[in-house]
Structure formats: C-alpha cells, structure tokens
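Appendix B: a complete holo record

For completeness, this appendix reproduces one full record from the ligand-bound portion of the collection. The bound molecule is fe (ii) ion. The inputs are the chain sequence and the ligand SMILES; the output is the full three-dimensional arrangement of the complex, encoded as structure tokens. No fields have been trimmed.
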Amino acid sequence: MLVAHISDTHIMAPKEPNERSLERINFFQRCVEDINSLRTIPDVVIHTGDLTDNGLPQEYIVAKDILKSLNVPFFLTPGNRDGSMSMMNSCAEDLNISKNHNSMVYAVNEFSIRLISIDTSSARGPKGDLSKKKLQKLKNLLNDYRDQPTLLFMHHPPFSISFGDGSYFEYDQPNSLKEFNDLIQNYTQIIGLFCGHIHRTYNTTLGNIAANVMPSIALDLSQERISNKVDLPVYHLHKFYDGLRYETEIRHT
Ligand SMILES: [Fe+2]
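The structure of the chain with fe (ii) ion bound, as generated:
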C-alpha cells in the first residue's frame, strides 16, 4: 500500500487574491498534480491539518476544489487553524463521516492498512488537545480491529519536538500526552504515526511505532532548517510492506 502524506497547506481565500494566497494555492496544486502523475498512483492521500488558514467556508471551497482533482481518495484531520467543527461542517460529506460528533476522531477501514484520524485541535487555542473523550474514542476504534495494521494521523506531534536538551511539547496538557502514549503502546497493530503542525521535518519513534512529521506545503511558513529548505514544496510517500514496516520517500514537486 502506498500513502501520500501532505500537510499545512494554509489555503486562504481573500476577496482580492494576493501573492501569498496565490502561491499557497499553486503549491498545493503542484502536489496534487505530482501525485496524479506518479507511475504508481498512491492508494490514498492523507492531509494532516491546517488545510486552511482560518477555517473559513470560502477557504474550504478553494481547498476542496484542489483536493477533488486528486485521482485517489483523500482523508483529512483538522489542524489548529482549521478547527474541528469548521472542518466537519465543510468536509464531513466528502469524507463520508457523520457530523454528529464533537471531534474528528474516525477510522477508515476500506484499505489493507487501517487509517485513524486523531483530532488534536482545541477550542482553547493553537496548542494540541487530547481530551478523555477523544482518547476513549481512539481506544474503541483500536479495539475494533486489533489484527489489522493501522496508521494514525494527527496534526500536533504527540512527542517532544525540541532539538535542544530540554523537552518541548505542542500540547496544553502534557498529562494527556502520557495517557495517549501509554494507550497506543498497548496496540501492536499500530505501525506508523504521521503529523504536521511544526512546519519542518521530524522523525522519531514511540516504542516500536515510527513517527514522521511532514513539513508545510505553504513554504512562506516553513520552519525547515537551512539545510532542508526547498524552493518548491515536497511531500512524503510512504510505502508499506506486508503491513509491518514502511519506507518514506521525500517527493519533490
Ligand atoms: Fe500549520
């Protein structure tokens, strides 16, 4: 199974389009066109949030227009800029999920590898949130199919993202992160965890679970270190083998 991972497109739709808004649209379109042109077309595309810059209906219209030009199914998880409810209101029908929930924690069961979106956005601010309700929903979903390889995708990385000596977490309540980490370690079917939010590449492991952070497609917001800077956006292609492991290719558009 081949999964294309994109993130942080921050699509804007001002009344008068400007250089930044047009560039972000252009970069998003480049990624979509590149995915469509691959010799082996991915089975699915996941977007790990901040699809839009302000969670506005008109921004979703523009972003969905681009997503719908994909030749493969796509799935979304909300970022802090999207907001759970705004994304749910604008995208639930496209994702075939119910609007009768207060977060976008949901599973996709139609592929050989199961996908679970973990909604980390918070009504309190830009930092991540993993409430008891969300963790319980995740637990229920993981209990449903314990033998099927599973991939988690979420906006805020649930681990320290500091390059320095200390730890730094993009979450309001670090205790909830410990609960999350303890929870996922009980489920050996989880083989990968994909995130966005920090706008730079970051790879780590949580126990036996590999974790990757995709840099932003919106390059004007890039936080990549100088050595990773690019002129055109990149995205990640994850190739899964036997549902046990995967390799990642950084794809230049
Ligand atoms: Fe972002």
